Each structure stands twice: as C-alpha cells, then as structure tokens.
Amino acid sequence: MKRTRRLILLSTTVALSLVSGPMVAASPTSDGLAVEVGAAAEPFCYGEPSTPGADIADLKARFRPSNWMSTLQEMYRRRWPSGEKLAIAQAGDKYWEQFVDTRSFEAFAESMMVAIHEETHMWDLDPSRTRWDVHTAAWINASQQATTVPLHGGFPRREILPLITDKFSESMDRIYLRDPQQGGYRTQGVLAELNAGLMGLPAATVVQEYIKGVGASNSRDIAATNLRYLLLYLRVAKDRYPAYWAKIKNEPKLRELALIQFLRTAYWLEKSAPYAGKLGSPDADRITATNYAPANISIIEEFTGATVRRDTDKHCTV
C-alpha cells in the first residue's frame, strides 16, 4: 500500500517472518487528553473501558460479508467502545475493504488488528488534522483525541539505530529504520506508528478467542517496539540535537502525549499478556524489559516531568 503521507502497513509485512491500580478520573483538556505533565502533576493511571467477555455469539451467527461494518461497530460497542467510536468516525473511508477479511467471522476478527491500525493512521494523518512534520493528531480512545500537537520537524528516525544493540525488533527495524524512505521519517513517523500500534493491539486483544491464524501475531511486538523507538528518539534528541530538544521540551501537548502513550503501552501490554502466545512473540516482553532500562525511564521522566511506576501498576505515575 502506498499513498501520499501514509505509513507502510507493518502488520502484513511482519506478521509472517488488567493490572490493578487506582484509576484517576480527570477532566479532558480541550484536546481530549486528561493528564497534566510537570513536577506538580497529580498521580495518574491510564485506563479505558473494555469488556472482552461480552457475548458476541449472535454477531458471529449473523455475520455476512455484506454486514461487516455494522458487525464491527456492534462488536466493539460491547467489548471496546474506543474501537466502535473510531469505526463510526471512519465509516465513510474507502480504504476499509483493503484491510477487512470477510471470508468468515474468525477471519474478520483476526483482520481487525490491521484494519484498526490502518484506520487509526487514516484518522490521525488526515490533512484536516495533521500537517506533516508541523503538528499531528492522535486518536487515543473514545473520549480522548489529541489534536494540533506541535512537532517542530525533528531528525530522521534511523539515527536511533546505534542505540539498538539486540535483535529483538530486527524485523521492524528493517522496515522503519533501515528502509531509505521510512528511515527518513522524523517525529511525525515515530508518533504515528506508535499510536496506530496502540489501537491495533486492543482491537485484537478483545476478540482474541476468535483469532486462529497469524494475522495479529505481532500485535504486542508492534506496541513494544514503537515505544522503544519513541524512547530512543528522545534520547538522541537530547544528546545530539539540543536545540530541538529544547523546543519539544517546551511543548506541553507533546510532553503530555508522550506520557499518555508510555502509560497506555503498559496498560495494553498487560491486558494482552494472557494471550501473548497468539498476539506476540517472546521478543515483545524482551523489548518491554529494555524499555524499562534506567536510561529509557530517565528520558521519559525528564521529558514529561512525571515519575512512572515500575511495579505492577506500570500504567500509572507516582
């Protein structure tokens, strides 16, 4: 798939090769986010509604290729409202049918990781919301969407490669960092791919019992790897681009988004952990362990001004 200013579909390229804690009810900002950043910020836990055990047997029984969109919306209304609301927002997009497999209900459910991942890109990168390399948008959940988040350009994301000293994310590194075009994407690419991965993972998690093949088998790897890229990107920014680092450190909306995405990754990796065998490889947990290495925790805390938890409540700040 190739479209102007769209990111390459990771899922089809790579697939073959509830934790406890207090939930803070905060009022969303004008951009839909709901967490402060900075030294005075209150403790915050990321969370969103999901009911993976909700009965959808009737939807499976009624499923036909002709009713896939209404099935998609109702399936996620019952199990994951964020997916339902995105599907409603994007219902008119002509590209859905490239991603949705309607041969059976099981194939349909399995294709949701790719479909939701890509439709997240479609929403986020719509020219009405995103001006490439200038400001971006991010669909986070049914009640939270970030808009006009300043980017200030950045530097090619391939420059994080020297900080990756293992092979845990090699299959994705080849696409996103080593590819001449993809490797040249800057902050925009780093954030957009992380956000799409953080929609694709819950999309598959909440229908995991219907997934029989490999179409969603790298869901957890995608989320963990793209968080890795963000953390390493921030480290390179601080170490090699002090002027750029100063600019983005002075952007509360960007700092807020980075914190939410860090906590959100922890939240959905934990939610999906019982199904790790079908939604990811062992490398997903290995990558996650490196994301909590001291240098990476230090950079997210310095950038956001928040202290993140390292215990079982990794989706929370202190």
Characterise this structure.
With 318 residues, the protein is mostly helical. It is built from 14 helices and 2 strands; from the N terminus they run H-H-H-H-H-H-E-E-H-H-H-H-H-H-H-H. The protein has a two-stranded antiparallel ribbon with strand order 1-2. A hairpin with a 2-residue loop joins strand 1 and strand 2. Helix 9 (219-240) runs antiparallel to helix 11 and helix 9 packs across helix 14. It is globular, with a radius of gyration of 18 Å. Residues 1-32 have low confidence and may be disordered.
Short description:
The model is unreliable at 1-32 (pLDDT under 50). The protein has helices spanning 10-14, 57-62, 68-79, 81-89, 96-99, 105-124, 170-176, 187-205, 219-240, 242-249, 252-272, 276-279, 282-291, 294-304; strands at residues 135-141, 144-150.
Report the average pLDDT across residues: 90
Strand line-up across the major sheet:
1-2
Biggest sheet character:
2 strands, antiparallel
Tell me the distance between the termini: 42 Å
Instruction: Pick out the low-confidence regions.
Output: 1-32
Helix fraction by DSSP (H/I, runs of at least 4): 40-55%
Shape call = globular
Strand content: under 5%
H/E element order: HHHHHHEEHHHHHHHH
Features:
single chain, 318 residues, mainly alpha, 50% helix
Secondary structure elements and their pairing?
Layout: H1 10-14, H2 57-62, H3 68-79, H4 81-89, H5 96-99, H6 105-124, E1 135-141, E2 144-150, H7 170-176, H8 187-205, H9 219-240, H10 242-249, H11 252-272, H12 276-279, H13 282-291, H14 294-304
Helix pairs in contact: 3-4, 4-6, 6-8, 8-9, 8-11, 9-10, 9-11, 9-13, 9-14, 11-14
